[in-house]
UniProtKB/TrEMBL annotation:
<protein>
    <submittedName>
        <fullName>DinB superfamily protein</fullName>
    </submittedName>
</protein>
<dbReference type="InterPro" id="IPR034660">
    <property type="entry name" value="DinB/YfiT-like"/>
</dbReference>
<dbReference type="InterPro" id="IPR024775">
    <property type="entry name" value="DinB-like"/>
</dbReference>
<feature type="domain" description="DinB-like">
    <location>
        <begin position="24"/>
        <end position="142"/>
    </location>
</feature>
<dbReference type="Pfam" id="PF12867">
    <property type="entry name" value="DinB_2"/>
</dbReference>
Length: 156
């Protein structure tokens, strides 16, 4: 079980097969967070805020039978294309990190396979894999936007 938890921690934090959120969001000029290059339907801000909302929902669902999920899809996506200020951006990144640490703590102290009492068959293993999969998908989109904006790392 220890090996499984260690692997889950790796993929939740970005794994070794792809960039993690911290690297994907590092050093982005604030004025570019709301850009939608090539008529994409979302900005970096919208993707990061969506990751925050979805991860928060999965964390709260995993621990609280009284949790009410946001309405899909409207309440999982921010309406605004850019954060109102740098403080909002920083707060979103911090909440993602804090919620992820709380979820990782949970998977280290609870049975991964036990069905979540108020769920419909879900367990912590499923929620961990879903958080990792969902985040990886949208992190890849962030990297694509950064490439299109010319603000991603280049290799020599």
């Amino acid at each position: 079980m220890t090996a499984l938890i260690e692997e889950l921690k790796k993929i939740l934090n970005g794994g070794s097969a792809h960039v993690g959120l911290k690297d994907a969001t590092a050093n982005i000029p604030f004025d570019l967070l709301g850009e939608r290059p090539h008529n994409l339907p979302y900005s970096i801000w919208q993707l990061v805020e969506h990751i925050r909302i979805a991860q928060w929902d999965m964390l709260e669902f995993s621990k609280d039978g009284g949790h009410k999920s946001p309405r899909w899809p409207d309440e999982y996506w921010p309406r605004e294309i850019a954060p109102p200020d740098k403080s909002s951006w920083d707060k979103t990144l911090k909440q993602i990190d804090d919620d992820l640490m709380a979820f990782i703590e949970m998977i280290q102290t609870k049975d991964l396979y036990e069905p979540i009492a108020h769920g419909s068959g879900q367990n912590l293993l499923r929620e961990a894999l879903q958080i990792a999969d969902h985040s990886a998908y949208h992190i890849a989109e962030i990297i694509v936007i950064r490439r299109l904006l010319g603000i991603w790392k280049t290799t020599s």
